[in-house]
């Protein structure tokens, strides 16, 4: 087996909690300069922008800034900060519920992505926490959808991340969610839903196939009024959009869901009205490092239940 090459520590600090881009030059090539290679390698970046970054010392190697005419050196490491378009601030507080030398647990608001991805880079829980808590090595133990509010867990030390990720992979984390959806008096609850879910890259909606189940959700009715109900959802597996898809399949689409049962036009990034009424409300597990039993609970409420008129009006 080929040994994994060691990546040097970046000489550039994070910027607002976002890591610099790391590139390694190819082991061989006939580019006269680093500039020539980057212009060819990064066609989505204008040559003029690359040249300006070189002149301003924004692209650095292990020995410092890369000169405009620096010769191409096979295998050299480079770092730079990517230009990100301005992001719409998510105007909701990210609440830290717990912090110790191993874990940070937060109560994430709706519309805030967990980790940088696509159009959401700085306005993410990870970037905010790294910056606000001065924890540049913080990493996610799992991922919570941008539209879902509630508990998200992060690991302080990189060397401990695997232990906590293994808990989620091996289904050793007891997860509970709350949801608001239509009430169907003809539907017998509680029940367990099992199906085979597939999620294709680049396709917004997951779908269910007629195949052996790879997902399982426990669904309980907590209370109902005025045609709506509040549900407790317990996923026993971790497929993308699993709870949303299972609820929709029962004829109980979660309020505010823009994907199930029908994919709706994507709202503007500054439209924070009528959030998805799904909340990661509790997580429990045996800590793999300390052996202690841990349980965390969200302090958030779902607006469609606590203030139905306000949620419906988008206030």
DSSP strand content = 25-35%
Mean pLDDT: 92
Low-confidence stretches: none
Structural class: alpha+beta
Q: Spell the H/E element sequence.
A: EHHEEEEEHEEHEEEEEHEEHH
How would you sum up the major sheet? 11 strands, mixed
Give the beta-strand count.
15
Q: Specify Rg, calculated over alpha carbons.
A: 23 Å
The helix content is 10-25%
Shape: elongated
- The span between the termini is 58 Å
Task: Describe this protein's structure.
This protein is α+β, with helices and mostly antiparallel strands and 315 residues long. It is built from seven helices and 15 strands. It starts with 20 loop residues before the first strand and ends with a helix. The relative contact order is 0.12.
